[in-house]
Amino acid sequence: MAFLLFFGIVLSVYFLGNYYVFVRGLQAISEGSSLRTPYIWIFWILAATYVAGRTMENIYLSYLSDVLVWTGSFWLAALFYFFLAVVLFDLLRLIHHFVPFFPAFITANMEKSRYFVFAGTIIAVFLLVTGGFINARNPVVRNLDIEIQSRQIAERDQVRAVLMSDIHLGTIIGNGHFSRIVNKVNQLQPDIILLAGDILDEDLEPLIRQNTGETLRQLSAPLGVYGVMGNHEHIGGAARAQNYLEDHGIHIIRDTVLKIDESFYLAGRDDRDKRRFSGRERLPLEKVLQNADMNHPVILMDHQPLDMEKAAGLGVSMQLSGHTHHGQLWPLRYITRSIYKVSYGYRNIDGMHMYVTTGTGTWGPPVRIGNRPEIVELNIKFRKK
Questions:
Q1: What CATH number does the domain containing 233 carry?
Q2: Which domain holds residue 299?
Q3: What sign for the dihedral angle of Cα 284, 290, 292, 297?
Q4: DSSP bridge pairs for 143
Q5: Which of 191, 235, 347, 355 is deepest in the core (most CB within 10 A)?
Q6: Sequence-separated (6 or more) residues with CB below 8 Å from residue 155
Q7: What is the average pLDDT across 141-164?
Q8: 3-class DSSP assignment, residue 37
Q9: What pLDDT band is residue 2 in, cutting at 50, 70 and 90?
Q10: pLDDT score at 61
Q11: Contact present, 344 and 356 (Cβ < 8 Å)
């Protein structure tokens, strides 16, 4: 019931947002214009594509479902910016109603002015979404130097790690794009690869059809490839997602610790949304760490950037997270900043190194505006206290 209620609310908000934009757009087209009928049909077909495509994926995965999902995903981004534009115009109209400030060339022919604003907004949103798509398909490599101090270290005094999160492999982040990501990662020649959750985008069928698992196997690092579960792995079914990833070369760490190369510990927490989708709680962090010698360096992966002060207090050396996408579409970063203490980037939390990545892929719209997708190269040096 909670699941149905959640998606009922989402669909209601989606419909109301579409309706608000639709009505305002229709008001910009004069009554006798031949554009009204095409506008009505095109608008509601586009509005229906994402829901229709995701529904069809669960019934019969096909090229038609791919086209619908891709079209609908672009529409989600366009709708978001159309909505912001309409809200802005309505605010300006409200202010003008009380304090007239529109210049005469606008007020002299409001019908013509509305039409130009309508056309200009469509062009602007199209260019914005196109640029955001190009940005989203070209992840940048970030370099971060970290020095971890601990009471005990082994002979290995440094490690080069590659961090990725929120790849969201599926219909939108398909095998072609992912192959290019894998090539970029392997060119960095990392010692270890760390995947901080949301590796998959819920459904496994698109991956199976595209044989994406074989591309996952190509991720190469001498110390191994390790991942944790994100909320999307739980949405699609945690056990099935874990089996698929482990069958294709990814070591999934769920509420436990591993000692890597007798040099440092790698801890992985199950996602906090485990309870929502399975009814079971994840282990408390102190229990996750109970098998680690905290005198050694301890690197923690937790998909959502939470419990940072607790991790620092328990002696964790570094926490790596994702999940936020840093908003993905500007200005949503201001919302993620208000929710999370660290929405993106590096922070020292009570002596613990903390890094939250923007993510390597996208969720929903295949578009990023206001931030870059990234592959993070961590050059970690171990020093004795």
A1: 3.60.21.10
A2: 141-384
A3: positive
A4: 377
A5: 355
A6: 263
A7: 92
A8: helix
A9: low
A10: 85
A11: yes
